[in-house]
Amino acid sequence: MTTGVRRRMGVEERRQQLIGVALELFSARSPDEVSIDEIAAAAGISRPLVYHYFPGKQSLYEAALRRAADDLALRFREPPEGPLGARLLRVMRRYFDFVDEHGPGFSALMRGGPAAGSTTTNAMIDEVRQAAYEQILAHLRIGEPPVRLALVIRSWVSLAESTALQWLDGRRIPRAELELQLVHDFAALCAVSAAYDDEMAAIVARMLADEPVEGPISELLGRLVRLAPAAVPPPR
Predict the structure, then answer these.
(1) SS3 label, residue 79
(2) % helix / strand / coil in the chain, to the nearest 5?
(3) Nearest 5°: phi and psi at 3?
(4) Model confidence over 108-161: pLDDT tens digits?
(5) How far apart are CA 73 and CA 66, in angstroms?
(6) In Å, what is the CA distance from 105 to each residue of 24, 141, 143, 167?
(7) pLDDT tens per residue, range 13-27
(8) How many other β-carbons are positioned within 10 Å of the β-carbon of residue 177?
(9) Average pLDDT score over the chain
(10) What SS3 state is found at 102?
(11) How many C-beta neighbours within 10 Å does residue 16 have?
């Protein structure tokens, strides 16, 4: 029988290990419920050694959030090929993959946790929102957006956040339905804005011109057409 020799980690390697361990624990339970002792045990080191690398739980929590925020921001990246509806649907699937994997941590970040309200945490949340905003503009191939489009995108990013948080409370709606619904929500917000603005109307026309019959946005149009007879009163 041979005895394994524990390899001594360098400072940065140990820090990254602790961040990974903490993120895994924060993803399984609310960060308020996770103790430094649990993090130390999961990492295979002593409690004092955790404090050697991080001055306290909040600093470790913020480091874990930094890694999670960077990961979440990357979920909005998508090669600019193909119809917009299909690209947005792939983005939403990756977004909900993250929410599914990091449920309690995602909820704590958005609703309040050990670092809630701190300047660092708020900045990270804003960075994720800004990354999502910029990626959607890239999908639309628009550099300087008109005011109404900027409003639509930021409203939609907030809607995706609130929808994900509501879904985590019981997961009563199938995840795939919500992913598709959020793509439809984006198209609907653009369409309503287009009714008031010529620039938005041109953007929506371009979106529809590239959308195949079997695409998500075309599916929304089909659903609305089926609703139309019930919504329009008969002629007198």
Answers:
(1) coil
(2) 75, 0, 25
(3) -105, 125
(4) 777 655 555 567 778 888 899 999 999 999 999 998 999 999 999 999 999 999
(5) 11
(6) 9, 33, 33, 14
(7) 999 999 999 988 888
(8) 10
(9) 87
(10) coil
(11) 15
